Amino acid sequence: MTFPAELKYTQEHEWIRIEGDFAFIGITEFAQSELGDIVYVEVETVGEVVNSGDVFGTIEAVKTTSDLFMPITGEVLELNEAISEAGGDDPALINSDPYGEGWIIKVKISDKSEIDGLLDADAYAALVN
User: Fold this and answer.
1) 10 Å Cβ neighbour count for 60?
2) Does a structural domain hold residue 124?
3) Is 116 strand, coil or helix?
4) What secondary structure does DSSP assign to 49-83, as a single string?
5) Which CATH number characterizes residue 64's domain?
6) C-alpha to C-alpha distance for 95 and 126, rounded to whole angstroms
7) pTM over 0.85
8) pLDDT tens, residue by residue, 73-87
9) Is 39 exposed, middle or buried (0-12, 13-18, 19+ CB in 10 A)?
10) Element (H, E) at 32
């Protein structure tokens, strides 16, 4: 399993990629492998500010549904159209490319200092191994 060094991680198995004042958020390779085949993603928080640790959506696999937790406080700007019903409707991208095309949301970061509280790749690898 890979955990890209340029990303930060949460104990709830989300990853975050920082790009200036914005961030892309998804679930880790470990999380998608535990969930199995992902069939649906629901995010009803687009346009809202969601606090760190709060639920920003849900992800549904064949066997289970799980909450998605916000790694840092920020305004949810968009849901990845490639995985949503409104767009490409291919949530399986999360299984095949969790760190790339399978990102879930883009956010505008409210407080960059919260990034310091996230796990680096080594700490996340130790958590799941």
Assistant:
1) 15
2) no
3) helix
4) EE-TTSEEEEEEESS-EEEEE-SS-EEEEEE-GGG
5) 2.40.50.100
6) 22
7) yes
8) 999 999 999 998 655
9) middle
10) helix 29-35
